[in-house]
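tool_call predict_complex ligand=nicotinamide-adenine-dinucleotide
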Amino acid sequence: MATRHAPLRAHATPGSVPPDSLTPALIERLATSVVAAPDAARVTTDAPYTGAPLADLPVSTPGDVEDAFARARIAQKAWAATPLSRRKSILLRFHDLVLSRQDEALDLMQAENGKTRRDAFLEVVDIAITSRYYARNAAKYLKPKRRRGAVPVLTHTTELRHPKGVVTVISPWNYPLSMAAGDAVAALMAGNAVVQKPDTQTALTALWSLDLMREAGLPAGVWQMVVGRGSSLGGALMDNADYVMFTGSTVSGRKIASDAGRRLVGASLELGGKNAMIVLDDADIEKAADGAVAACFPSAGQLCVSIERLYVAESIRERFVDAFVARTKRLRIGAAYDYSIDVGSLTTPAQLGTVTAHVDDAVAKGATVLAGGKARPDLGPLFYEPTILTDVTPDMTLCEQETFGPVVSIYSYRGVDEAIARANSTPYGLNASVWSGDGARGRAVAARVHAGTVNVNEAFAAAWGSIDAPMGGMGDSGLGRRHGADGILKYTEAQTVAHQRIQGFTPPAGVSPGTWAGLLTGALKVLKAAGVR
Ligand code: NAD
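tool_result ok
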């Protein structure tokens, strides 16, 4: 039986007491934004730090999803007709509200996800950057563009960008604010309505961003949220969508892609990874060791772009491993609603189960634990130590499969070609990192890595934060891109309007088709010879 609005403090343990801002009244207010009937079934989420009940949310039905789409279709028409300048000002106001009310978001993210405050703060930064970027750049991407006509001067050709309509956004629990609001912002700016299903575990943070966007001026019905299992709501979310933005596992992504294919609607899929970091023999070892810590353990490794495989040049392996292990052992693990902690909790019992199973399997088959390697129930039910393994072999599950936890395997290599081949040896291709004392060398190696983003002398934030450039996965890591032009144009339909000012494609009166063909052939040769593109 679900508990209604459990008093958080009563369940918290010392050191992890949620702040006063997370009142039952706030939670209830956010929960009322879920599209669901007043007598809907309820679901209770638990706080990862303590295992105590956190929120009690209404569960949407497929009928609620249908209702949300019906409302969204009406709201979208007015929203698409709203001047871009107005949409821009709403997004910029949202930006300001997220920054000024960040403590609420940080508290919510920590309570729902178990991450550290530092990791949560990066999501606030991300949403501010994304909102500002699309508010200020949407006009450039969406405005009608003159294109070269079929017949120079005589054909006036324009490319228009229309919103897709109503976009389904499905988001996971690991980056509750970034994943919920980041993709919605671009879809909204392009004139779409959004029906979103955040993961239930972190729905409050998503609902908080919706609340702020409405406060910023977004009209009712333009962005709505439903709560429930993918297996229950997935059909209605897919059957009604004009476009789908999905972030989650590769297994779920394949199902979404096939459902979208059946309906011939577009889908952007941001999926899993088994990201590699290559430390070249000329790398600054201290900096690379700092970089490895930053790369492997953010949000307890529950970050799609975090690193789980480390390839180190044999000549520097020992020094690098010593530096990395020493830093990792110094990390402060725990639960605190302030900036004092380096590594937080895993989010769900299932995630703790996967991490434990992967490490135990590797150790049983001969892997060596250089740091961590065990759960920390003394800190809370879902804590797991930052873990460094070596002697990992292909028969171990974690060698190729995504763990999505604070676990990294170190391998050494002899030549750069070998490092690149091994980095490229999984079906995934999301993110990678290359460390070198020579920037040009690092960038040249980066270009040979099969991954949608590659960071040189940085873990992931350089590429992710380059909001003007595309971000997404190759291979089993996904389809489509977020950020930059792709991140907003994918939410639009391109339309070409070509106005033929003077008839130009059929032979003029008195000119035979054969003569006309000869004349056109001559004209084509002239155009090529003149260097026309
Ligand atoms: P998941 O696929 O199980 O779930 C993600 C979301 O999709 C949840 O909201 C879930 O309810 C929903 N869902 C699942 N199947 C659905 C269906 N058929 N119809 C509708 N909704 C459905 O993923 P997860 O395990 O919760 O998230 C972790 C995974 O997400 C990891 O593999 C991680 O790498 C990946 N991820 C990728 C990115 C990226 O940008 N590439 C970002 C974050 C997380």
